[in-house]
Amino acid sequence: MNGPYPSQLLEKAVGEFSKLPGVGRKTALRLVLHLLRQDNATVEALGESLIRLKHEVKYCQVCHNISDTERCNLCADPRRDASQVCVVETVRDVMAVEATQQFHGLYHVLGGVISPMDGVGPADLQIDSLVERVKQGNVKEIILALSTTMEGDTTNFFIARKLQGLPVKISVIARGVAMGDELEYADEVTLGRSILYRTPFESPV
Q1: Domain 8-56 belongs to what topology?
Q2: Which of 79, 90, 113, 175 could anchor a disulfide with 155, C-beta 3.0 to 4.6 Å?
Q3: Core vs surface per residue 20-36: b (16+ CB within 10 A) or e
């Protein structure tokens, strides 16, 4: 037996859980022992939901949000303002903005931000598809709602350059979200106000 674990199966399960973000080995052990105390149906339901999520989840062909269908519920909703597109990094950011109930347009999920240190370049993000959406002519305003970090600002600048010359207004969320903050951790009131009081994007160059 390796280490303090009485079972290799237990150790393996703890090892897998501890790969999750923010989960150390102590927390992983607590979660695994909790699952061991549950009945088979409960544990099997958890496992099945994760497997189905991985194999069956789709990404919206329009905005790249997670969806059960080829076109997500937001993009398919005729009550949404299709002339406004809020550009965010991740699916979590869509959920954060939606929670404010202050934005009624559509979204575009980039899948991250430009970060050479992490090996993420423009080609790794959904920037070209954003430009194509604007070229279709229905989008009148792009709202850049990326994290207020150097990487977020770099991505804002790159997108603005790519959209240069196209008939679209480019706005950026107000700096109610503190410098260095990620969108998903902003409180709903602050985030809502930062969207309502957005300002025209000004290129640093």
Answers
A1: Helicase, Ruva Protein; domain 3 (1.10.8)
A2: 113
A3: eeeeeeeebbebbeeee
